[in-house]
Amino acid sequence: MAYESTDGGTGAAGGAEPGASDSLRTFGAVVQALREHTGLSREEFGTLVGYSKHTVASVEQGRRMPDRDFVERAEPVLGDTGALRKAAPHLSRQAGLASWFRQWARLEATAISLYTYECRVVPGLLQTEAYARAVSLDVPPLPDPEELEQRIAARLARQELLAVTRKPPTAFSFIVEQAVLERWTGGEGVTRELLDHLVELIERNWNVEFQVMPTRSLSHAGMDGPMQLAETPDNHWFAYSEGQQNGRLISNRKEISLLQQRYAKLRSQALTPEDSLGLLKRLRGAL
Questions:
Q1: Cβ–Cβ contacts within 10 Å for residue 15, how many?
Q2: Which of 27, 29, 154, 51 shows the shortest CA–CA distance to 93?
């Protein structure tokens, strides 16, 4: 249970996430000092740079790896000193990978396309800090406090992969079961923040396609469980399948073709991206 799964699930399997590092904490302290020097609250600063106050807090506390967009937007707001741009390339991560996940982690970091179908939890790339904490505490055995903080920091830092300024930016497709969004993992407040985060992310990141698989559906191509597909820069495809305390990297072309067919079918069965965004907003409005 030491690390999160690649799909951001329960924390039972290995993840590509780094733990907190001195460089992340130092960078966060600099951001906080510059923000306070300008007289901005976290919420005010977040509004100016296009991120939530929760994201700002995670960066300042060294929990989240700041993406390129964050750095570029923060610089002019914090005085255009160049300090953040110069410091960002030197940020380091403390890797913590389960043995069965290491190969997938390397593929994910450089993939030009990443497709994820999830029926258990919101994928790790889309989680908030509070949701990640709730998920981590749900599945026995309970982690000790230090391990819990490392796991959450790792999960949030991985979200740098979503940055549209990556060259080339990765194309993401997520299909998530409606029941996962309606489960209220962590309670009403955690769910409200999660839905706000998802709406903000989808509207800001043009490289992220998000679809909801409706609870009521006459046909469903994902009955065999979660799946992930990754396309490498040289246009080779790999897949990843995960279960209880294990994960499997798939390179067999026949198996990958089968999963690609299933994912394509899921895309056609799920709500459109526009309708999915509308559903997220309605779910948020009902809270």
A1: 29
A2: 154
